[in-house]
Amino acid sequence: MHKQYIPASLRLLFLSSLLAASISGLAAEGSQTMSLKLQSPDFNENGPIAKTFTCDGDDISPALTWSGIPSNTKTLVLIIDDPDAPDPKAPKMTWVHWVLYNIPASAPGLAKAVSDEELPPGTLQGKNDWKKIGYRGPCPPTGKHRYFHKLYALDIELPDLNEPTKAELEQAMQGHILDKAEWVGTYER
Question: What is the mean pLDDT of the chain?
């Protein structure tokens, strides 16, 4: 078989254009990463969650706000869970406190003590680990637990998953997550 000769200048041109395309692709990918932000006016990042938001208080949801939603976001997902259950010194499971999906991308956040009827139109809920729908606050049996408030921007509106568990919702979200943000609070009895 006959080898074809490619001049060094052409090889160099090809390699430089390939490198430029790779760098451009990385820059575009990087600009979309971590733009989504989640926070709560009711507790500081990694700070204590007030008793009113727990089973020892009124068991109401804290206010949450978000920004930096990618432009091609169709819906948002919110999952609140505790990876320190039952004991932070020997965690055995992640306890799920709230599962929300199909939150409209236009929603700026959730109000404090938001009721099911006050959720943004189209928002659906899944089951928490009490096997119930809705928010249930921190209620640790022992020790100081971390509560992860996780917000996901999705490129689709999910079908009605009929009160999914966190695992079922995460499976349905696969391949559709554009960005993710977290806000963590702590609680100890």
Answer: 88
